[in-house]
Amino acid sequence: MARTVFSSVDKGGLTVAASLTGVAALSPLILSAYGVGVLTQLCAWIALAGSWVAFSGMTGYISLGHAVFFGLGAYIMALGWQQIPIVAILPLAGVAAAALALVVGFPALRVRGPYFVILTLGISEFLKYVVVAIEASLGAGGRLLIDTPDTVVLFYPMLGLALAATAINVWLTRSRLGAALRAIREDETAAATVGVPVTRIKMLAFAVSAVIPAMVGALSVLRSTYFEPMQLFSPTTSFTIVTMAIIGGSDRPAGPILGAAFILFLSELLWARAPQTYMILLGALLIGFVLLAPSGLSGLWARRRSASLKRRAVVGRPA
Amino acid sequence: MSLLSVRNLARRYGGNLAVDDVSFDVMPGEILGVMGANGAGKTTLFSMIAGNVKPSSGQIMLEGQAIQGQPPERINALGVARTFQIVRPFPGMSVLENVAVGAMYGRGRIASPAEAREHAFALLRETGLADRADLPASQLNLAGRKRLEIARALATRPRLLLLDEVLAGLNATEVGAALELIREVRERYGLSIVIIEHVMKALMRLSDRIVVMHEGRKVVEGLPAEIANDPRVIKAYLGERRHAVPA
Question: What domains can be seen in chain B, in order of their start residue?
């Protein structure tokens, strides 16, 4: 009767998730360095889009500022590289991003809708130029990171972050916190009136959704081996995250995975050969999904599955 | 001792006093009716008690503890729940999930989602929505949404329930069923209820006492029989309107 409510993870989904993880974990053994690079990139995007969904997808507060957390993580890694061990920098980046999210969220989470969108974009651009100014005053246009680990070594922690982001989203579909976040999205006043401490919960979710992107940023700058603020704080990162979440669907844990895989596949296919076509196609897809399939690829999939289940139930019923 | 005491409560919007120096008490287990024409300040009064609107001045005490100006979630946690005149379901969530949110937070604060769901389902059975538990709340009709408002408010385990025109827009059969429901939940949960209503006959039957508001002020307070024959009430309801029409 109450199945659809906090959808329990079905066995099928769990099996698919476990086998995908297994294949991914073993793939560096057979893939080329290029292949591992693409896979690492895929994990990075899954982790980013998944973190974004955990806050923006759940609450409806669309953040266009997640690039700042990614950039902050990269910056902390660039500053600490060869002075602090990586295993210490990663949590440090996460904690710093969460703290930044609390500081930014305190004013920004007071406004909803387009105001929140613009404010997050504005704050993230502002902080980008602050970092640019700091770096310029130190006389550095960028920082070269030498002796960074091999891509294969970076792949596993990135896979871990993708898994962590997905696990958070699965947990949110079943937990009290997830129910509160969705209630905030649906009607914040009504949520507060039935006892949901809306301000505290929004702050908490915003801070949590900043942690993983910072760690992804920290690992990513090790891959690119060069820190350049204009590039690592680029709002394009935020736009790509939102695009992936919308195309994949931001109301289901599988959404960010499908969205990231789809966009990455598309860009690998077209970016080098036909960059203009790629951007046009991406724009068209985005418009198409927003208008025709707002629940994204994962929503379409879920609908097909429930339709076929119903058909089977009807067929199976004795006359 | 009264459960709720409202003292000299006022809310100003610019130069307009929506609620002006209103005082009354609600006793434990009592049903207090609030009557008045549109714009009398009834809903603003509720919004201040529930914490959705901050009073400009005055006091609201729950069992002697001042609660005015506190955020709605804290007031709800103390045991005050309200419904909205213009219903506010969580439209994209299922009917059951709507109610479960109230059970997970609110005064009950059921920690386990599964238990909250069970509690919510029991309330849906009680309010006659059990067969629609899995539907998105957006697909309920008006009578269903009003019931959902009541179920979701009850899920927070209130001591005081504020019902804002839960009968408006319902047909005669639905009104009868809703009245029955309100009496039932009062008995079962030992609730005190404050109810705003336009349907006068229903309010007379349901209420232990009635407060009549007009243009932000409390005009009369008394037993239903007294209210029905009070010339000031008749004037507030019928007489003023004649004067308001320009000659």
Answer: 1-72+161-176+194-247 (3.40.50.300), 80-158 (no CATH)
pLDDT of amino acid B240: 53
Across the interface, do B97 and A197 touch by the CB < 8 Å criterion?
no
A237 neighbors A41 (Cβ within 8 angstroms): no
The beta-carbon neighbor of A179 closest among B51, B106, B113 is B113
CA of A251, closest CA in chain B: separation in Å? Answer: 11
Give the E-state strand segments of B28-132 in sequence order: 31-35, 57-62, 65-66, 80-82
What is the predicted ipTM?
0.90
Chain B contact for A74, CB < 8 A? no
User: How confident is the model at residue A1, as a pLDDT?
Assistant: 39
Q: What is the average per-residue pLDDT within A255-266?
A: 94
Tens digits of per-residue pLDDT, A183-224?
Answer: 999 999 999 999 999 999 999 999 999 999 999 999 999 999
Q: Structure tokens of A281?
A: 């196609």
List the alpha helices (DSSP H) in chain A. 11-26, 33-52, 58-59, 67-80, 86-108, 113-137, 151-174, 176-186, 188-193, 198-224, 229-232, 235-248, 254-270, 275-292, 296-316
- Beta-carbon contacts of A228 under 8 Å, excluding residues fewer than 6 positions away, are A141, A142
Q: Does A38 touch chain B (CB under 8 A)?
A: no
Measured CA to CA, the distance from residue B244 to residue A17 in angstroms comes to 70
Provide the whole-model pTM: 0.89
Asked if the Cβ–Cβ distance from B91 to A187 is below 8 Å, we say yes
Q: Tell me: the pLDDT tens digits for B131-145?
A: 999 999 999 999 999
What is the pLDDT, as a whole number, of residue A182? Answer: 96
Q: Is A216 exposed, middle or buried (0-12, 13-18, 19+ CB in 10 A)?
A: buried
Taking any CB pair shorter than 8 Å as contact, residues of chain B touching chain A are 50-52, 71-73, 76-77, 81-82, 84, 88-94, 96-97, 100-102, 104-107, 109, 111, 113, 116-117, 121, 133-134, 152-153, 155-156
Q: What is the pLDDT of residue A304?
A: 83
- Kindly report, residue by residue over B154-189, the tens digit of the pLDDT: 999 999 999 999 988 888 888 888 899 899 999 999
Residue B90 Cα, gap to closest chain A Cα (Å): 5
